[in-house]
Recover the amino acids of this structure.
């Protein structure tokens, strides 16, 4: 009897080890796939992209908030961003042009020519990075917690999908940095005709000064007390994941969807937000040159 129990336990142990080994191999395969898609995308000299951000539920749900489009041409990235401000019944538009990692230019609605981003580099880079698909891969590399395959509900047999779940603690650090950069942008001393831009955020819209008049007042009041802001972010619940759809034949993404959920206490109420950033990619290697500022 005792011998039988030993054999049973041994069989269970062997099965468990085999299952762990199989899981480890699967995770390694998914990581290898992700890295292959990332590297192939980074090697592309040019492509076009477009997309939108939607607030899907919660206190701040109001449909599309941001629409964007752009293209990469070598080291340069051109982007047009439309920011909805429903409280003011208007849409703000800004065009961005980054030449490598050092120079960035902007053109706002009233501008007829490109203007240097000097003095507003952090704000303009934040806006650009929010919607730049290349930066999405940078963020995944820095924050990824796990990678898994997901069922592809689309009919194209050449398209597969993987999901990259981000680390919550690193997401909170990212939010704190974004809000701090917003605050620093607002208090900068600038001449009357200097370029001014208030960047949006992709996480915790009610804390952003980029969501219109109402959220601007909320954002400014909450950012006026850094200690309270830090405590609020510490107690926040947040989760986010990227889903990358890519072609098996080329290892190039066709679309990237970022889903973000957050929950936090503010003004004696529980704020719950669910937003989604949808980015679509096309015309690899067939883009027209970006503007010359």
């Amino acid at each position: 009897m005792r011998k039988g129990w030993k054999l049973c336990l041994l069989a269970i142990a062997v099965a468990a080890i085999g299952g762990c080994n199989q899981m480890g191999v699967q995770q390694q395969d998914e990581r290898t796939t992700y890295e292959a898609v990332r590297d192939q995308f980074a090697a592309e000299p040019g492509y076009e992209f477009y997309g939108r951000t939607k607030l899907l539920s919660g206190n701040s749900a109001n449909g599309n908030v941001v629409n964007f489009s752009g293209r990469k041409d070598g080291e340069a990235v051109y982007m047009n961003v439309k920011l909805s401000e429903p409280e003011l019944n208007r849409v703000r538009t800004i065009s961005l042009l980054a030449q490598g990692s050092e120079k960035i230019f902007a053109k706002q609605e009233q501008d007829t020519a490109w203007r240097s981003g000097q003095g507003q580099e952090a704000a303009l880079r934040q806006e650009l990075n929010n919607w730049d698909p290349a930066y999405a891969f940078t963020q995944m590399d820095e924050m990824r917690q796990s990678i898994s395959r997901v069922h592809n509900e689309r009919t194209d047999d050449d398209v597969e999908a993987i999901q990259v779940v981000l680390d919550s603690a690193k997401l909170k650090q990212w939010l704190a940095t974004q809000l701090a950069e917003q605050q620093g942008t607002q208090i900068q001393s600038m001449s009357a005709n200097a370029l001014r831009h208030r960047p949006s955020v992709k996480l915790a819209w009610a804390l952003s000064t980029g969501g219109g008049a109402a959220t601007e007042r909320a954002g400014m009041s909450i950012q006026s007390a850094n200690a309270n802001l830090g405590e609020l972010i510490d107690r926040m619940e947040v989760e986010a994941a990227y889903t990358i759809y890519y072609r098996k034949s080329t290892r190039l993404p066709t679309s990237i969807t970022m889903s973000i959920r957050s929950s936090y206490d503010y003004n004696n109420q529980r704020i719950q937000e669910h937003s989604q950033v949808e980015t679509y990619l096309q015309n690899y290697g067939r883009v027209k040159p970006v503007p010359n500022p």
